[in-house]
Amino acid sequence: MKRIIFVVLLGFSGATLAEGGMLQGSCAACHNTKGPATQTLKTAFEKKGPDLFYAGNKYRQEWLVSWLQKPGRIRPAGMYYGGHIKAGAKGDEIDASTLTDHIALSKADATSVAAELMKMKPHDDLIAKEKIEPGTIPKQMGEMAFTKFLGCMACHLIEPEYGGLSGPELYTAAKRLQPQYMSSFIRSPQAWEPKSMMPNKNLSEVNIQKMVHYLETLSKENANAN
Amino acid sequence: MPTKLVLLLLLAAFSVQAQAKETPADNYKAYCVQCHGSDGTGKGVNVRDMTVVPRDHTDAKAMSGRSDETLFKAIKEGGPSIEKSILMPPWGATLSDEEIKELVQHLRMLCKCKFG
Questions:
Q1: N or C, which terminus of chain A has less Cβ within 10 Å?
Q2: Per-residue pLDDT of chain B (116 residues; tens, 9 = 90+)
Q3: How far is residue A66's CA from residue A72's CA, in Å, rounded to a whole number?
Q4: Is A148 an 8 Å CB contact of chain B?
Q5: What ipTM does this complex have?
C-alpha cells in the first residue's frame, strides 16, 4: 500500500516539474492559476493573491521578470482588503502587521515563470475588442478627470501618498499592465472578475481612452517605482 | 416526459440563480466597507483623501430622510443620480436588483430607522 502511494506521488511531482512546476506548485497555493474566475463572495474573501490564469492578457512581460525578482507592494491593503484592516482612532486603517512580503525569485526562475505566465491567454476575446487611440493627456487634465469627474481616486493611489487604499496603486499601472487590459478592465471589471470590488462606472469611450493615456503619463513619471 | 425535462431544466436554472445571490451582509462587507467602514459609520479605509465623506449609515436622522426608492437609486446608479457626489459609485453591474433591495433593508437595520 505504502509503495503505491509513493509511486503515485512520484508520478505527480514528475508531471508538475515537467510543465512549469513552480507556477502550478508553490504559486498556486496563493494564486488562481487555472481559472475560472471567482464566482462567489465566500471564495473572494478567501483569496490569497490576485488571479494569474489570464496573466498573458494582463501583464507586460518585462515587468513580470523584474517584479518577480524584487517584488514591492501593489495593493496597500493586501488581498482581500477586509482581512487587513483594523479599527483606528479615525476609522478603519491598514493593519500592516498582517501584510507579508512576496517571495522573490532568482533571475532564471523569474524569466522562465514570466514566459509561462505570458502563455496564459484565455481572454483574447476581451482584449480583441479594445482599440487604444494614440494620444497623450496633460497630467493635470488627466488627474482632474480621474479624481473629480470620475471618482477613481477613492480606491486607488495616484501618488505614493495620495488616493484610496482598497485597490491596486495606479501610478505604476502602465508599467505593469498592457494598455488593452487597462481599457477592458475599466470598461467592465466584472467581465474579468464577476466579484470584483471595483464597480463598473459606465465610462464613455472617450473617458476610457483618457484614463489609459493618463495612467501611461503617470507611469512615465514614476519610472523608478516598483 | 418532455414536460418533466422542461421542469427539471427550469429547476436547474433557478437553483443556479439562487446560488449566485449573496447575502446583504456579505455584499456590504465586500463592496461598501471600503468607503463606509466596517461599522458603517462612513470611516472606511479609503476616506483619508476623499473630498466628500461617505454617508454614516448609522445616522438615523439623515437616513430617515431618504425613501427606500432613493436609497435603491443611489446604490444602483451612483451618487450623481440623487444629486450626490461621484465618489459614491454605481453598483448596477455588480449587484442584481433583488440584492440592492436587500441592501436597502440592510441599511435600515444599520440606522435602526425607516423613512419619514
A1: N
A2: 456 655 555 555 444 444 479 999 999 999 999 999 999 999 999 999 999 999 999 999 999 999 999 999 999 999 999 999 999 999 999 999 999 999 999 999 999 999 98
A3: 11
A4: yes
A5: 0.88
Question: Buried b vs exposed e over B69-90: b needs ≥16 C-beta within 10 Å?
Answer: eebbbbbbbbbeeeeebbbbbb
- What kind and span of H or E run contains A51? none
For A94, name the nearest residue in chain B, comparing CA atoms only.
B45
Contact B101, B95 (CB under 8 A): no
pLDDT, one tens digit per residue, over A176-223 is 999 999 999 999 999 999 999 999 999 999 999 999 999 999 998 877
- Tell me which architecture the domain covering B2-111 has in CATH: Orthogonal Bundle (1.10)
Task: Pick the closest to residue A49 from A69, A21, A68 (CA basis).
Answer: A68
pTM, rounded to two decimals: 0.92
Domain ranges, ordered by start, for chain B: 2-111
Helices B97-111, B68-77: inter-axial angle, 10-degree rounding:
120
Which cell is B17 given?
Answer: 440563480
- A162 and chain B: CB distance < 8 Å anywhere? yes
Fold of A18-221: Cytochrome Bc1 Complex; Chain D, domain 2 (1.10.760)
A153 to chain B, any CB pair closer than 8 A? The answer is yes
Best residue in A38, A39, A92 to probe B by mutation, most B CBs within 10 Å?
A: A92
